[in-house]
């Protein structure tokens, strides 16, 4: 009787099994990676510019890029190196959108009068070409820069600019170390601070403006 050799069957089956396993693994990895990609939210890109005056306040200008939902961003300010070294983390303050307005004077956000919690938005987005404002009266260091708030006196708005009045009753614009870090302090004209716009969901930086203080 004729005998058939089957020595090559096992290697062929083995190779086929390896191919099948490889294809399955590739499909699983591809599906997992695709799921992760779909679950990630794209961080918007934009160019934000800003100006600050000790007599008129802060202007935030959207100079180009994506529309930024008001509910999806966090705006912070922090002292730059011209105020002294290593002040960024110490002096970081979040800009309250309830104190920010559009050109018509409408507040971007509003707070619950009972709880004080953020309760909604009058302005839903910062779009290219838009300008938001923080009037100088809303630049009270007590809540605009609370991390460098001075307990050694009080802040007084005289109708044109903010002053620091020490507990002794005299205006003290130079000797108080906390007052020296306030943007509204006239002696800081010419110094610079940072205005950052971050994506609220991811914490990623969208744009940083270097702001030179003017009079």
SSE blueprint:
Layout: H1 9-39, E1 46-53, E2 57-65, E3 68-69, E4 73-79, E5 93-94, E6 109-111, E7 118-121, E8 125-126, E9 131-135, H2 141-144, E10 153-157, E11 162-166, E12 192-199, E13 205-214
Parallel strand pairs: 1-13
Antiparallel strand pairs: 1-2, 2-9, 3-8, 4-5, 4-12, 6-7, 10-11, 12-13
List keywords for this structure.
single chain; 215 residues; alpha+beta; 7-stranded mixed β-sheet; two-stranded antiparallel ribbon; 16% helix
Overview of this structure, please?
With 215 residues, the chain is an alpha+beta fold. It folds into 2 domains: 1-40; 46-214, no CATH class. Helices cover 16% and strands 33% of the residues. It is built from 2 helices and 13 strands. The strands form 4 sheets. A 7-stranded mixed β-sheet has the order 5-4-12-13-1-2-9, with no helix packed on it. The N and C termini lie far apart (109 Å).
Total individual domains: 2
- Sheet/helix structural class: alpha+beta
Q: Mean pLDDT score, rounded?
A: 86
Radius of gyration: 29 Å
Strand segment count: 13
Helix content: 10-25%
Termini separation comes to: 109 Å
How are the strands of the biggest sheet laid out side by side? 5-4-12-13-1-2-9
Question: Gist?
Answer:
The protein is α+β, with helices and mostly antiparallel strands and 215 residues long. It has helices spanning 9-39, 141-144; strands at residues 46-53, 57-65, 68-69, 73-79, 93-94, 109-111, 118-121, 125-126, 131-135, 153-157, 162-166, 192-199, 205-214.
């Amino acid at each position: 009787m004729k005998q058939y050799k089957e020595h090559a069957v096992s290697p062929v089956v083995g190779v086929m099994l390896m191919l099948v396993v490889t294809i399955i693994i590739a499909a699983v990895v591809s599906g997992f990676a695709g799921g992760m990609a779909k679950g990630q939210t794209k961080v918007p890109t934009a160019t934000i510019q800003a100006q600050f005056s000790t007599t008129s306040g802060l202007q935030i200008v959207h100079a180009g890029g994506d529309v930024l939902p008001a509910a999806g961003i966090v705006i912070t300010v922090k002292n730059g190196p011209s105020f002294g070294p290593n002040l960024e983390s110490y002096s970081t303050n979040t800009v309250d959108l309830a104190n920010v307005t559009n050109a018509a004077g409408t507040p971007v956000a509003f707070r619950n009068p009972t709880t004080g919690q953020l309760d909604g938005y009058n302005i839903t987005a910062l779009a290219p070409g838009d300008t938001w404002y923080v009037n100088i009266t809303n630049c009270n260091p007590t809540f605009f820069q609370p991390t460098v708030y001075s307990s050694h006196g009080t802040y007084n708005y005289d109708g044109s600019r903010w002053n620091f009045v020490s507990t002794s009753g005299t205006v003290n614009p130079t000797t108080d170390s906390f007052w020296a870090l306030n943007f509204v302090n006239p002696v800081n004209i010419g110094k610079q601070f940072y205005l950052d716009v971050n994506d609220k969901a991811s914490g990623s930086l969208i744009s940083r403006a270097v702001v030179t203080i003017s009079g």
